[in-house]
Design brief:
Protein name: histidine kinase
CATH superfamily of the largest domain: Histidine kinase-like ATPase, C-terminal domain
Helix content: 40-55%
CATH topology of the largest domain: Heat Shock Protein 90
Membrane topology: Multi-pass membrane protein
Number of domains: 4
Subcellular location: Cell membrane
Largest sheet: 5 strands, antiparallel
Radius of gyration: 46 Å
Pfam families: HAMP, HATPase_c, HisKA
Main location: membrane
Shape: rod-shaped
Oligomer: single chain
Length: 415
């Protein structure tokens, strides 16, 4: 019941059926015919006259055309009309009783009057009520009304919630660059207005993102000129020369990492099927050639859809990060249903649990004093996460039991 669509449908159906229900009650009152008192009054007076014409009841009336039987008429007793008819005959002073019955499949009613000599006088009684099958027709009519109200409610509810569905679909298609997909401005006035607002929002977001990337790229580029001048001057220093060069190297790595982060958002290579196991073997061999302790465990043969250059850069960052900070690492790849799970486990100190959520933030350092024992600007994980999520993957970090950090990357496989 939390769905707006369902609530609108139920509201419309209940409203329509409620109005039709009130109209039906009025129709039933009208179609129900007159009350038994109005229809049985003439019948009682007719019986009062006919009782006197029954042969043997009044002298000289033996040839009167009155139907007399040894038993009451067949049929189902109508208790309400029977009670009303007996009451009226009692008020008229008739010392007889009657039974009103209906014949199945035949219109009208029949009054069977009990005579003193154990015989029954049969008298036709009018029936001003609706035909018996009219209730079936009325039930069918109500059913059609309910079905029609449901269909109309579903249609108009779909029209009402279409702008919300458009908003939901558009938001679900937001890419890794944070820009909304263009929405066609067609349909009703409300739908067009919603689409136009979303397109305006998309354009403004794109402008803001491009401005941010230009700013970061320009800052990283412009930093290199004064750093180059500072490096040249540092060469002529006698005191603290190594410290100056060390700080300049760090600034240079930060500027270079910032520029590469912007390039990852702008220069996106084509998506194609990639043999993940083969790519992991190549990266592991490359990182080992650089002097890092990297081993590969069991690698299932799986393929995913991604950009080969971007994915190579992301996985290299993760493996180098684990090998550098974790005193070596092991890489394994397993196929789990329609997913490929890549696990990079190291033997380092891990990350404090309260800092795991911040590990993917730019320039993150586990050491709050930001002491840098190994080269790096703190953007490796941020760049890797950016690339992995662009290709529909997900990455999580968790501390291993007994020490070390486990980086787990999950991708959807392709057949």
């Amino acid at each position: 019941m939390k769905s707006l669509r369902r609530r609108l449908i139920i509201l419309l159906v209940v409203s329509i059926v409620g109005v039709v229900g009130l109209a039906t009650i009025v129709a039933i009152k009208v179609l129900g015919g007159p009350s038994p008192e109005l229809s049985m009054g003439p019948v009682a007076r007719q019986i009062q006259l006919m009782v006197q014409l029954v042969p043997g009841h009044v002298p000289g009336a033996g040839d009167a055309p009155v139907t007399v039987s040894d038993h009451p008429a067949d049929g189902v007793e109508d208790q309400k009309h029977t009670r009303v008819l007996n009451h009226i005959m009692h008020e008229l002073g008739l010392d007889v009783s009657a039974v009103v019955s209906r014949n199945v499949g035949r219109p009208g009613m029949v009054a069977s009057v009990a005579l003193p000599d154990n015989r029954w006088m049969i008298v036709d009684a009018p029936d001003f009520g609706p035909p018996r099958d009219a209730w079936f027709v009325l039930s069918g009519w109500i059913t059609l009304i309910v079905l029609g109200a449901t269909a109309v409610s579903i249609y108009f509810t779909a029209v009402l919630v279409r702008p919300l569905e458009m908003l939901e679909a558009t938001v679900s298609k937001i890419g890794s660059d944070g820009v909304l997909a263009t929405v066609p401005e067609e349909g009703s006035a409300e739908v067009r207005a919603t689409a136009h607002a979303l397109n305006q929002l998309s354009a403004r977001l794109k402008t803001a993102m491009e401005s941010r990337m230009r700013l970061v790229a320009a800052a990283g580029h412009d930093l290199r000129t004064p750093m180059t001048r500072m490096r040249l001057r540092a060469e002529f220093l006698d005191e603290d020369r190594d410290k100056w060069l060390h700080d300049l190297d760090e600034l240079d790595r930060i500027a270079d990492s910032a520029i590469r982060l912007v390039r990852e958002e702008v220069n996106q290579d084509a998506v194609e099927p990639v043999d993940l196991a083969k790519l992991v073997r190549e990266i592991a061999a490359e990182v080992r050639s650089l002097g890092h302790a990297v081993s590969t465990d069991h690698l299932d043969k799986v393929s995913i859809r991604a950009g080969s250059l971007g994915l190579r850069r992301a996985l290299r960052n993760l493996i180098v990060n684990a090998a550098t900070h974790g005193q070596g690492c092991s890489v394994s790849l397993a196929a789990a249903g329609d997913q490929a799970v890549l696990t990079i486990a190291d033997s380092g100190p891990g990350i404090p649990p309260e800092l795991l959520a911040k590990a993917f933030e730019p320039f993150f350092r586990v050491d709050p004093g930001r002491r840098q024992s190994v080269p790096g600007a703190g953007l490796g994980l941020a760049i890797a996460k950016e690339i992995i999520e662009r290709y529909g993957g997900a990455i999580t970090l968790e501390n291993r039991t007994g020490g070390g950090l486990s980086q787990k990357v999950v991708f959807a496989t392709v057949s």
